[in-house]
């Protein structure tokens, strides 16, 4: 005999022991089964509802994406004029250093904040990768008569937000020697903190013998 807590179980036991009105005993048992099934259904409904809520939350967090737009790319090469200063010139064997400038617009259409880390600019020449730090052009300041800029290492993009940044990369004399007669590609590299493929790279521009294509 199925028994439920409370007065109902007592009634079932009394009629069962006295062998009176078996139909009433059967009815009590059916009621007990009914309430048991209802409780089980309610429990499973709560569990399923919780799982569905978790899945919907996970799905909503992944709706939308982060998009990257690169523009206003330019490159300048500097050469010592033997008078203590540098002049802008075409890339040649006497070039001492260079600067690659570009604008980055990032839009985040997802419902969550997105974070980029380990941000670099890579120049790929003949299957070799040259990693360069990226600096924020708007953070310019002069310290001891020298230009200083903040390096961009981490970038946080709020939900439904757009960020516009002016950036540049310093190119050393060794870097220039590698691209002067080569075909190079420039990428924006970073590690994202969401999704499956964490390490990413985005194409910015190409260089043909030091000139932007």
What key phrases describe this protein's structure?
alpha+beta, single chain, 213 residues, Immunoglobulin-like, disordered N terminus, 2 domains, six-stranded antiparallel sheet, 12 strands, 28% helix
> How many strands appear in the DSSP assignment?
12
Q: Compute the number of structural domains.
A: 2
CATH architecture of the largest domain: Sandwich
Low-pLDDT stretches: 1-18
Instruction: Write the CATH homologous superfamily of the largest domain.
Output: Immunoglobulins
H/I helix tally: 3
- Helix content bin: 25-40%
Q: Quote the CATH topology of the largest domain.
A: Immunoglobulin-like
Q: Can you identify the CATH class of the largest domain? A: Mainly Beta
What structural class do you assign from the helix and strand content? alpha+beta
Side by side, the strands of the main sheet go 2-1-3-9-6-7
How far apart, in Å, are the first and last alpha carbons? Answer: 86 Å
Rough outline: elongated
**How large is the radius of gyration?**
35 Å
Outline of this structure?
The chain is of the alpha+beta class and 213 residues long.
């Amino acid at each position: 005999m199925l028994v439920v807590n409370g007065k109902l179980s007592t009634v079932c036991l009394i009629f069962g022991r006295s062998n009176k009105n078996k139909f009433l005993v059967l009815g009590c048992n059916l009621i007990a089964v009914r309430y048991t099934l209802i409780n089980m259904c309610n429990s499973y409904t709560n569990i399923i509802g919780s799982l569905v809520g978790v899945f919907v939350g996970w799905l909503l967090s992944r709706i939308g994406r982060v998009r990257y737009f690169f523009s206003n790319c330019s490159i300048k090469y500097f050469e010592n004029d033997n008078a203590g200063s540098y002049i802008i010139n075409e890339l040649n064997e006497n070039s001492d250093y260079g600067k690659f400038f570009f604008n980055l617009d990032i839009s985040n259409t997802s419902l969550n904040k997105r974070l980029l880390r380990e941000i670099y600019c890579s120049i790929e020449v003949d299957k070799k990768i040259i990693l360069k730090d990226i600096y924020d052009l708007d953070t310019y300041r002069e310290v001891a008569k020298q230009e200083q800029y903040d390096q961009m290492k981490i970038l946080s993009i709020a939900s439904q937000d757009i960020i516009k940044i002016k950036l540049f990369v310093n190119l050393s004399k060794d870097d220039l020697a590698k691209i002067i007669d080569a075909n190079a590609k420039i990428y924006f590299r970073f590690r994202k903190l969401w999704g499956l493929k964490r390490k990413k790279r985005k194409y910015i521009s190409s260089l043909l013998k030091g000139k932007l294509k």
